[in-house]
Specification:
Blueprint: E1 23-31, E2 36-43, E3 49-51, H1 57-60, H2 71-91, E4 100-103, H3 109-116, E5 121-124, E6 147-151, H4 160-168, E7 173-177, E8 203-204, H5 207-216, E9 224-227, E10 236-240, H6 243-257, H7 261-271, H8 278-295
Parallel strand pairs: 4-5, 4-6, 6-7
Antiparallel strand pairs: 1-2, 2-3, 3-8, 7-10, 9-10
Helix pairs in contact: 2-3, 2-6, 2-7
Bound molecules: zinc ion.
Residues 15, 17-18, 20, 43, 45-46, 48 line the site of zinc ion.
């Protein structure tokens, strides 16, 4: 753990995470390919570490996937974890966990993999074309969504409480990833997760700062469960009101991180009533193309 290089107080603005402060300037950094000068700031009230006033985001998202070297492996692992979690919920009759929606889906690999294995999952993303999940990128009405996922999204969001309030709300299951610092830790300037070069990561949570965001969003911090990912510790998380979902998430993580899901899922998914959607989705995609073509005025 390193300490702040400069303890000089940042100007008198409130912390975007807890609404309090005081904030201190950790260091000035250059971010995005435009090398915009930015302030890395820390809130001593809630332990939130963040880049202030991100004015460079339009430039940062011109190449949305530049440098995301973990995208494919992360989605393969996430799909196995979510599949096993939802299968446990189906077999245990925990209640509706579908339809689901992957927020900030990017190419749409996670919802595509989940649909391939029978789950009713969609994708949404304000910054990406979602090539792999078209035409299933229209989320159903918010009230009916049983599970939302957001892998590598939280660190892109300027206000986590607002994201939790608006995007997650009362959804029974929210499964997500973000790498969490140790409480009180301020990583050194060369920490890979800062990714200052592309300027997309702006919020660096610890468990303590994330719990503060949950409280501000009206959520009980006890609903948060964190497990290790295959590469990074404290990288995978779930928010669920029901304790049985939290137990299921821990169990699913334990099984998937040992590779045992490959033995279980081929048996459990059919038992849970799941059927591959590859061919039905193909027909639906072709049908939608036909109806779009038919609705065009003839030349
Ligand atoms: Zn704060």
């Amino acid at each position: 753990m390193t300490t702040a290089e400069s303890g000089e107080p940042s100007s008198a603005i409130a912390c975007p995470n807890c609404g309090g402060g005081p904030l201190s300037l950790v260091r000035r950094v250059r971010v995005s390919k435009a090398l915009v000068e930015a302030e890395l700031a820390h809130c001593s009230a809630c332990d939130f570490l963040f880049l202030r006033d991100p004015s460079w985001l339009a430039a940062a998202y011109e190449e949305s996937f530049y440098g995301d070297t973990g995208y494919v492996d992360r989605n393969l692992h996430a799909a196995r974890l979510v599949r096993l979690l939802l299968v446990i919920g189906r077999l245990g009759r925990f209640g509706a966990s579908e339809p689901g929606c992957d927020l900030g889906t990017g190419l749409g690999m996670l919802p595509r993999l989940l649909r391939d294995h029978g789950f009713d999952f969609r994708g949404s993303d304000a910054y990406a074309a979602m090539e792999l999940i078209r035409p299933f990128c229209t989320p159903p009405d918010d009230g009916s969504i049983g599970c939302k996922t957001a892998f590598e999204v939280i660190e892109h969001v300027p206000s986590t409480p607002e994201f939790l309030r608006r995007q997650v709300g009362t959804t029974p299951l929210f499964v997500f990833s973000t790498l969490m610092r140790q409480n009180g830790e301020i990583p050194p300037p060369d920490w890979w997760y800062y990714a200052f070069g592309n300027g997309q990561h702006i919020s660096f949570h610890s468990r303590r700062s994330f719990e503060a965001a949950m409280e501000r969003a009206g959520m009980d911090p006890r609903w948060l469960v964190s497990i290790d990912g295959p590469v990074h510790r404290r990288a995978l998380h779930m928010i669920a009101r029901e304790a049985r979902w939290r137990r299921a998430f821990r169990a699913a993580g334990w099984i998937v991180n040992r590779g045992l899901d490959g033995l279980l899922l081929p048996w459990l998914e059919p038992l849970a009533g799941l059927r591959c959607r590859i061919i039905p989705d193909h027909y639906e995609a072709m049908e939608r193309l036909r109806s779009v073509a038919a609705s065009r005025p003839s030349p």
